[in-house]
Amino acid sequence: MTPRRQRMLAVGLAASGIMIATALTLEALKDNMMFFISVTDVVAGEYPADRNFRIGGLVVDGSMQRETGSMDILFRVTDLRCEMSVTYSGVLPDLFREGQGVVAHGRIDSSGMFIADRIMAKHDENYMAPEVAASLAEHVNEQTADLVQGGPECDS
Amino acid sequence: MIPEIGHFALILALSLAVCQGVLPLIGAHRNDAAMMSVARTAALGQFVFVAAAFACLAWSFVQSDFSVAYVANHSQLALPTIYKISAVWGAHEGSLLLWVLLLSAWTIAVGRFSHDLPDAFAARVIGVLGLLSTGFLLFTLLTSNPFVRLLPAPLDGADLNPLLQDPGLAIHPPILYAGYVGFSVAFAFAIAAMLSGNLDQKWARWTRPWTTLAWLFLTVGIALGSWWAYYELGWGGWWFYDPVENASFMPWLVGTALIHSLAVTEKRGLFKSWTLLLAITAFSLSLLGTFLVRSGILVSVHAFATDPARGLFILIFLGIVVFGALGLYAWRAPELDSPAGFRPVSRETFLLLNNVFLVVAAALVFMGTLAPLAIEVMNAGKISVGPPWFEIALAIPLIPLVLLMGVGMHTAWRAQEPGPLARRLRVPALLAIVAGLLIPGVIFGRFGLLVCIGTIAALWIMIAATLEPIRSWRREPGTTAITRSVLGMSVAHFGLGMFVLGVTLVSAFNIESDQALRTGGVVEIAGYQFELREVRDVQGPNYAAIEGTFEIRKDGEFVGEVRPQKRQYLVQKNWMTEAGILAGWNRDLFIAMGDQLGNETWSVRIQYKPMIRFIWFGALVMALGGLIATTDRRYRLTARAREPARVELAESAG
Hints:
The complex is a heterodimer of chains A (about 160) and B (about 650). Chain A has about 160 residues and is of the alpha+beta class. Chain A has helices at about 5-30, 40-45, 130-145; strands spanning about 35, 55-60, 65, 70-80, 85-90, 100-110, 115-120.
């Protein structure tokens, strides 16, 4: 092959490779990316119905319920404005605790309950996932302005 | 006093780095021998002062000098001494110092082993490394000084993050950084070649061992990190496509492409400008990785305490390096033309495909890592891109890469007759297909499209990689003795085969089960019976733990006992899972304790992981292959040529 044709071959291969990869990437991205939905939006019913998404917030103090000897757990998550219930069955991460930040992957079932298939709490105590921090910060001022959590817009 | 000495040593190191970065480059431009000769001396001096600063910080840790803020935040009196030392690089400031130390160590190694390079060229290489070092030293001194005092000093420190109190993590960062930083040598060689406008096959021969060495450190570093994540994070996964992991994976992919492209440049004088571009990209991606980790712009389990000033500095530095290098490339690369040609079926074509697939893979990882950021910037919501996406995306370029590899290894340079090649590879290919169907089907009892493809591909490379060494060993007619280069390549490819086999089988046949288990209760998973014998409290040096004792049996026969723990570290009060692992060459049994569910019952996560050791062992074999290849004779021939001159000198001196 002459150098010129080689270069054409190389460029052609690279270009078609990148084009195929990009097309497949965009396609795969559509199915496999996961949106973060704030608790307030979930309570307002604004969530994707048939697919997984992430929620996050603080585990409400005193909300953890578990039958003795069972791995099923029920707790409530707040973004300081609204609260929602989450169920999970399995081993909880080390830093999962009431009053601490948490992120859950899962979906809402037909009865309106959030069934988590994965619970994440970061291993650094001071660390909070940025999207959780942002969703809390949004409401922290309202709260001090006497709009307590579970206020009129959120009774669900 | 000691911290101030360390701080002062860093400032001296910076001024020497400036000398090392500026004078030799000017000297090489003006052909001024005196200015060029500054290079090695300044590099050595810089190394001495950086090492002194590093020693001062380590000393402050060993002495538990909590008046140093960095020590107070990352150490504690009861911390075992080994972790006091590894705590030096346990967080941002110290790990940056380690980075600079390794950079100057690479520089003096280049200075030491570059006497056969033309003076101007060596001066340019060391000069470029000096400029990089200047950037990092400025970064350390301006934004991340580890020697800042904290007055009044606290009585005790805040302790090292318990996750980092582990032998695996004590050695993982230095080795990983040695790899990252090592690509700066390839980068400096590329810049020096463009500055001198002279890029011949000798250039590739000089660059190759350095690149392979950096690559092998990166390989071992990533493997260690993955191994650590497996046993320490308590989830039993070995790779999470976390942004920081991706940050090390991208330079690895591009670095691997670079090694192969350098082979073509050295043997055939082709792909010159492409090789340069890869050398620039590999180092830029290392820098990008640093930026991602330290700016906290992406969510990551590894994220260091974040500070916008640091992110901004690294971003500016990255911009200067990338645009400077690419500008130089745009100016100089068109002058590099290769007269040689090759046929469609030839080693060159296969290496070209190798490069295309590896670069596409790196591009995909790049997209997946930055997509959440891009989408958030476009205000289209907050998304996360997780392992399912990366697994699909990476299979696209990597499966054909692995399948073609077995052929490429046996293809001749320039032109290959397809007939003889097909005859040679017929039997190995058949063998790989049969065994690749038998292993999942017979041993694990289940077929699957991806499992079979993965197993066949893995066995195919492993078999193909052994052909050449076996032929040489049997001294078949027409074969010459195998060179270290070819042997190294065969070993590395064999290691990749082991890795692919491990990944395929563990992904397909991994069993994970969360169980509620009473003391005395038994649960059966993957043919093993796990009995929780007892749960008791134990005390460590700086933690208290709840320890479960599990007895594992197979068909009633005792296999082993493991003791997973849940530890609470006394200073930070964090709970940490310490998994219990019963390791074997063909499977791991992994048990992590969860919470007490009341009533003597505990939640436990039990996992059966077939062939998982092949993942890390395969990576080590790859690195071993790299090591064998760097010791090839031809890289030392020129070095040896100067030996007589030295002996003469020594004699006349004596």
